[in-house]
Amino acid sequence: MADWRDVLLVDGYNMIGGWPFLAELSKIGMHEARDVLLEKLSDYQAFSGLRVIVIFDAYRVPGLGKSFTQGKVQVYFTKEKETADECIERLVGELSHRRRKIYVATSDLMEQHIIFALGALRVSARELLTQVEQSEREVKRKIEEDQAKSKRNTLDNKLSPEVLKMFERWRRE
Question: Which of these, 102, 8, 2, 100, lies nearest to 52 by C-alpha position?
Answer without folding.
Answer: 8
